Amino acid sequence: MDGGRGQPAVEATSFIAGHFSLQSADIKRSQNAAEERQSSQDLADDLGGGAKPIGFARPVFIGENRYDRRVTMTQDLAAAVSLFHSLADHSRLSILRRLSAGEARVRDLTDELGLAQSTVSEHVGCLRECGLVVARSEGRQNFYSVSTPEVIDVLEAAERLLAATGFKVDLCKTYGSDAR
């Protein structure tokens, strides 16, 4: 099974008490290294060649099993910080969650989420400016949807991370719900 995105392949062998027990697949190291170099080059090309990605493998332990996972990020983390900042609002996350189910108008979002029309318009505008949401015009109406499947992937990964950590971030003194 191919892990994709420069990650080693893993096979889920059982699901016990909410945790996957993973078994590493047999992968040739030289083939992995070549794929990782190519994915880093692809990322650099996607970034316009100006930003140089840094990648490092770190061991990850799940249960008793260990596997190495390549983490590729740009050296300038400003864009990543901006991305997470754009997601750091309850209203924007609610809008993205709703749009992950399908397109909607501002009116639909207002009715379904119980937010003011001006609030929804402001946050949809922010999400559009950030490239996370796109609009499709039909007559005088705009239908909004998530711009790429990767947006949904990030939201799903966040849900998995919250579940894996037992939602402990909500207890954090700096960023938890009591800090707000």
Structure characterization notes:
With 180 residues, this protein is an alpha+beta fold. The chain has 2 domains: 1-75, no CATH class; 77-180, Arc Repressor Mutant, subunit A (Orthogonal Bundle), CATH 1.10.10. It is 42% helix and 25% strand. It is built from 6 helices and 6 strands. It has helices spanning 29-46, 78-87, 90-99, 106-113, 117-129, 149-164; strands at residues 10-16, 19-24, 53-62, 65-74, 133-138, 141-146. It has a two-stranded antiparallel ribbon with strand order 1-2. Strands 3-4 form a two-stranded antiparallel ribbon. α4 (106-113) crosses α5. The protein is globular and about 55 Å long. The chain starts with 9 loop residues before the first strand and ends in a 16-residue tail after the last helix. Mean pLDDT is 75; it is low at 1-34 and 49-56.
CATH class bucket of the largest domain: Mainly Alpha
Cα-based radius of gyration, to the nearest Å: 20 Å
Shape: globular
Beta content: 25-35%
Order of neighbouring strands in the sheet with most strands = 1-2
Structural class of the helices, strands and pairings? alpha+beta
Give the termini separation: 43 Å
> CATH homologous superfamily of the largest domain?
Winged helix-like DNA-binding domain superfamily/Winged helix DNA-binding domain
E-strand count = 6
Brief digest:
The chain has 180 residues and is of the alpha+beta class.
